[in-house]
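step=predict obj=DUF83 domain-containing protein n=215
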Amino acid sequence: MMGDKDYKQTINETLDILTKETVPQITDPVDSKSVFLHEVIRCMRRSYFDRFDAIDPVGRDFGGVLGGLIRKLPYGSKLGEFAIEEIKLKGQADMLVDDIVIIFKTITGSPENPAAADILYLNGCMWIFGKTEGVIVYLTGEGKETSFALTREKKMFEEVIRRVRVYSNLIADKKTPILEPSSECTTCQYYERCYIKKHDEKQISITELFGTKKK
């Protein structure tokens, strides 16, 4: 505390603002005709909970802060749209440089290959912004950088479109999406909603357990 101002609170508020700029904010959760790219390239059940009954994740993701900072730069991209019949698929890349879409991700160690979700997201951005080339840039806490260049792929985007239609229908019908187990489940703030179920305790005897009867 310095003077009458709580600088720690100010810093935390600033970081929260930057983190929120990582992904577009959903202003109308019940609007099934507006679907965001980040919602369908990951577990749709998690995205659904984020829309209708959100829980803030524990801790702050450095990647989120980084994304917010990058989008403050002159190269920062604007929100784009891709029409799928009456549905608007919306997405935002971290940078648009000439005809190249660039996204940044933080990671603990240099990867040998890009993550599947990151590929889907970058490919979706290329279609949304009408670009044919894209780059995923992975950054570690030590400052190491690993980049992967990709070209636009149609079949991969068709799978995203399929998921967009499914997700849009689930929102309209107010139906929770099915489980999509992945390595991210254990760190998801909704883990207990998916895997921990309340059960009624029932006493059972050894004879009932093994199916034997007293003579």
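step=describe
The chain has eight helices and seven strands.
step=end
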